[in-house]
Design a protein that fits this description.
The complex is a heterodimer of chains A (about 280) and B (about 270). The N and C termini of chain A lie far apart (about 40 Å). With about 280 residues, chain A is α/β, with parallel strands linked by helices. Chain A is built from eleven helices and twelve strands. With about 270 residues, chain B is an alpha/beta fold. Chain B has a single domain (about 5-265), classed as Glutaconate Coenzyme A-transferase. Chain B is about 25% helix and about 25% strand. Chain B has helices at about 20-30, 45-60, 95-100, 140-145, 175-180, 180-185, 220-225, 245-255, 260-265; strands at about 5, 20, 40-45, 65, 70-75, 85-90, 105-110, 115, 120, 125, 130-135, 150-155, 160-165, 190-195, 200, 210-215, 230-240. In chain B, helix 1 crosses helix 2 (about 45-60) and helix 2 crosses helix 8 (about 245-255). Classes of the chains: A alpha/beta (about 280), B alpha/beta (about 270). Chain A: GO terms for molecular function: transferase activity. Chain A: Keywords: Transferase. Chain A: Pfam families: CoA_trans (PF01144). Chain A: This is CoA transferase subunit A.
Chain lengths: ~280, ~270
């Protein structure tokens, strides 16, 4: 089996400005934050990002990396409104495509299955159609229903974070919710998986049953060993959300000077330095 | 110290010594939204609806399915903030969409704006493209409303919430669904709105919001004044039913022993 092990910088070197990137996880849960932090350190910009958004989106918006955001919501869960997202929405200058959460899933499903669209009820009669005038409805060829035709959300790349992976790109979630990480990977031309631990293939089942092996190596193009890589979002059962750190993040995000200090303290160096700094404050 | 509303003689159920707070009256009114729903997923958003859904399961609707707030279906009746006594199923987000699209769910959401025909906004105040105030986003509101029964809980009944037209239609209402056509209307079922003043439904002309009952001590005029559009009126606007002694016991001793509800709903 191919060895797909690489480091965060290798993943980012395979991304380029103008790409469409999907980010897995949900809100402030199991986000590939070490990959996002590597993206922040790069020159890659002008991205279209598709996500059930959390602080990944907040950080990328704050750094001016996103020109088009496709989302159902952006939230920190225990803090309902992502402060950078809120500021960006109110400031303007970024294209925002806001879908119903289920529409996002359906667009990824269509892309994963190489379909141009999938019919769905969600979105009908709502302002999703008004703020996205390119959306079309489709008449059932078998009946009278007029359904929304959710276009495929094809991704150039997907970034997801899992609990365990092998070097070939089989990856396992050990928490209770897979979110839509498998779908993000399948909707993407190239999928990059970071994981808390890299284990030999034969040891994957020591962590959980076969049905916890969510991501299969045919999905995957790169595997990154990223311990504590989802910090400060949750990565159950390896660790929960770092709530004090998230509060610090949210408070800093509300004030430009405090944000500058936050960036300088945590985000101005590399991942190793980040982990040492947050380890020191834990 | 919590201000209380004397229930007095109430269906003969509560003893004269019993007194229900406004929060408790609201929780019971919310619980009744799920009455008769049978074996479907009750999805309460925020505290009062969460208390209400557990109260519904403990009283009138034992077959309701409930989430533990994470990714499991939980059995039993348990206190808000605690872990449920038992898990009966797996409910990751992908399964929530399946339940939703199958129509086997009744959600109670908290809109920032709600209009005469039940359109609800949780996305943005002002123009969508350049909002004065960004909110959460559409979340599941378009899919919920077009697929299965939906009710709303409004903590503070005022004209800023009950608006003539919402700024962004997330949850769809009867007028917008009618304009979109029969597929949008097919499963749209807006059941009940509970606020800190009243209980309302959509039994008015063309699915317009209608005042059903006012909470004890609240007049019809006060509700009309706190509503930013013309309210339809039920043939007889009654007083919202008071909690029974058993409902009060369940709320106070089992579901919300810490009294979190009293911070959520304050008497006016």
């Amino acid at each position: 089996m191919a060895d797909k092990l690489m480091i965060e910088a290798d993943v980012v070197s395979r991304l380029s400005s103008g790409m469409t990137i999907g980010i897995g996880g949900w809100g402030s849960r199991r986000k590939p934050m070490s990959l996002v932090r590597a993206l922040l350190r790069s020159d890659v910009t002008d991205l279209t990002v598709v996500s059930y958004g959390g602080p990944d989106i907040g950080l990328l918006l704050a750094a001016g990396k996103i020109s088009h955001l496709v989302y159902g919501f952006v939230s920190l869960d225990s803090i309902p409104l992502e402060p950078h997202f809120r500021a960006a929405r109110e400031r303007g200058g970024v294209r925002f495509t806001e879908y119903d959460e289920g529409m996002l899933q359906w667009g990824l499903r269509a892309a994963a299955n190489r379909l141009p669209f999938l019919p769905i009820r969600a979105g009908l009669a709502s302002d999703v159609l008004r703020s996205n005038p390119d959306l079309r409805t489709v008449r059932s060829p078998y009946g009278e229903e007029e359904l929304l035709a959710m276009p495929a959300l094809r991704l150039d790349a997907a970034l997801v974070h899992m609990n365990r992976a092998d070097a070939a790109g089989n990856a396992q979630y050990l928490g209770i919710d897979p979110y839509f990480d498998d779908l993000f990977c399948q909707a993407a031309d190239r999928a990059y998986v970071s994981a808390e631990r890299i284990v030999p293939t034969g040891e994957l089942l020591a962590g959980g049953p076969p049905q916890s092996l969510l991501i299969q190596r045919w999905h995957t193009h790169g595997v990154v060993h990223a311990p504590n890589g989802a910090h400060f979002t949750s990565c159950e059962p390896d660790y929960g959300r770092d709530e004090p750190f998230q509060r610090e993040y949210a408070e800093a995000a509300a004030n430009p000077q405090a944000w500058e200090a936050f960036v300088s303290r945590y985000l101005s160096s590399d991942e190793k330095q980040y982990q040492e700094t947050v380890g020191a404050t834990a | 110290m919590t201000e209380v509303i004397e229930t007095g003689a109430n269906n003969g159920a509560a003893s004269p010594a019993e007194a229900a707070t406004l929060a408790e009256i609201c929780a019971v009114a919310c619980a009744r939204a799920w009455e008769g729903d049978g074996e479907i997923l009750a999805s309460p958003i925020t505290l009062i609806p969460s208390i209400a859904a557990r109260l519904a399961r403990a009283t009138t609707d034992p077959d309701l399915l409930l989430s533990d707030g994470e990714a499991s279906l939980a059995g039993g009746v348990w206190a808000v903030g605690d872990d449920p006594p038992e898990i009966e199923g797996w409910l990751p987000y992908r399964a929530v969409f399946d339940v939703c699209w199958a129509g086997k769910r009744h959600v109670m959401m908290g809109p920032v704006q709600l209009d005469r025909f039940g359109n609800a906004n949780i996305s943005a105040i002002g123009d969508f493209d350049r909002p004065e105030r960004a909110l959460l986003g559409m979340r599941g509101a378009p899919g919920n409303t077009v697929n299965h029964p939906t009710s709303y809980w409004v903590r503070k009944h005022r004209p800023r919430v009950f608006v003539d037209k919402v700024d962004v239609v997330c949850g769809i209402g009867y007028d917008r669904a009618a304009a979109a056509g029969p597929t949008a209307q097919e499963f749209l079922d807006l059941r009940r709105v509970v606020s800190d003043l009243a209980v309302l439904d959509f039994g008015g002309p063309d699915g317009a919001m209608r005042l059903v009952s006012t909470h004890p001590g609240v007049t019809v005029d006060e509700v009309v004044e706190a509503t930013g559009f013309e309210l339809a009126m039920a043939d007889e606007v009654v007083t919202t039913p008071l909690p029974t002694a058993e409902e009060l016991r369940l709320i106070r001793e089992v579901i919300d022993p810490k009294g979190l509800r009293e911070r959520e709903v304050k008497p006016r």
